[in-house]
Amino acid sequence: MSSRICRTGDAAGAPPIEWRAFGTLPARGKAAQKSGAPLSAQAQQEGDTASPGRDREMETRAAAAYQQGAAAGEAAATQRLQARMDPQLAALTAIVAELAGMRKKFRVEAEEATVKLALAIARRVLHRELVMDPDALLGLVKAAFQKCDARETHKLRLSPVDVELVREHRERLNLPPAVEIAADASLTRGSAIFETSRGELDASLDTQFVEIERGLTDVLKRRHA
Prior knowledge:
Blueprint: H1 27-34, H2 39-132, H3 134-145, E1 153-158, H4 163-168, E2 180-183, E3 192-196, E4 199-202, H5 205-224
């Protein structure tokens, strides 16, 4: 630091030096002191002015982070639940499909059983009619003979129980004299087998019921196929 000696006459020309006391503030600090508020209070006010914006920003970020975390947690929980439920749902689907198939099977079997039961009842009723009403057997023989060619028919086999009845009513049945009426011990009551030059026509009551049952069973199977 340089210095020089000023004489008394030169004192007026020397520029004044402003000495800053230790601990004093710069111009900004002085302005703060002139305003009557300490520096710390002013800084606090500036911080208070900026804090609401920062608080809102922090709240927004926190809310976004919470929503993101909640969504991620919900997705993970849903995935875990789905992983546990998939095998159970597959098993349930298989059971439902199996039950549906069994229901169809049971329905078909029930219908077939109903047909068999109805035919069994009808067979019993007609057999009873054959015993109690001779005309029932005569009607059976007459209907069967109408399907045959009289010129090609040469023999009618019946149960020994039914032979005499048919012989007695030959003319009523329009059976030509050339047609032989013979007893067959292997046949049951209500049986009637015509022998022709083209083969045999089995008009027996039991045979007709078997054919009816087979036809109805085929119809049911085609309907449920």
